[in-house]
Amino acid sequence: MAIFDNYARYYDLLYQDKDYEGEAQFVDRLIQTHAPQTKTILELGCGTGNHAMLLATAGYQVCGVDLSAEMLEYASRQCDRVSPEVAARLQFSQGDLRQVRFVSGASQNENRQFDAVISLFHVISYQTTNQDLLAAFETAKIHLKPGGVFIFDIWYGPAVCHDPPTVRIKRLANRSIQVTRIAEPIVYPNENLVDVNYHVFIKDLSNGAIEELKETHTMRYLFKPELELISSTLDLEIVECREWLTDRQPGLNTWGVYLVIKN
Fold first, then answer.
1. Is the domain of 148 the same as that of 35?
2. CA distance 135 to 154
3. Strand pairing partners for 152?
4. I need a labelling partner for 257 at 20 to 30 A (CA). Which of 146, 205, 226, 244 fits?
5. Which stretch of DSSP H or E encloses residue 25?
6. Pair 152, 173 in one domain
7. Do 26 and 95 belong together in one domain?
8. What pTM value is reported for the model?
9. What is the rounded distance in angstroms from the CA atom of residue 12 to the CA atom of residue 50?
10. How big is the chain by its Cα radius of gyration, in Å?
11. Residue 136 belongs to a domain with what CATH number?
């Protein structure tokens, strides 16, 4: 079972305060700065498709891939919320970003290539082993055109070490359900990993029934030098490493950092 399947139907409610529009505009600016000829985007770990829909609305052809079938079911419904012209620029496929390969329409023996590859909302930090991380980078490399860019955000190691994660409680509701989510982290400093143990309660407001689920998300916090090493191994170059959405230089209080890597 994919990690998000259990609560895919509550996902958009849990993150309703996330600034998807601002993030899509930020990614658009990064693309226009570093690869202004971009027309096609491969999104690794597209989730429910919010970023993909907004980028397609901005004019890009977007192919989204995710491991979770339930997430992709919600992503496919995004096409019903946009014009037929925008929907025609969206494609969603199920696959593991460490292994997925899109073949060229011209040849089944060639990989389809894109002007940009993106992986947002800390998807790269879900690659918890060196093998997984390298495989994700290889997927990006294989599908990038020469001069293309790989854009992703991560949990930034110096900040996680300086300001470790703490227990957090989130409560949200809509007209039909009320969700309470407790996140309890366990840090493994020698592995650069954090287990985020989620305990979620979903109350049906029509009858008072409560559904309970538990799930552990293991996250890897990353450091620039190790990403430089992986990039150089694949003949990729880091051209930008800054705070997500603000563009400030990252520091000890910067949990969210983005990187732009050029092929």
1. yes
2. 16
3. 119, 259
4. 146
5. helix 20-34
6. no
7. yes
8. 0.92
9. 9
10. 18
11. 3.40.50.150
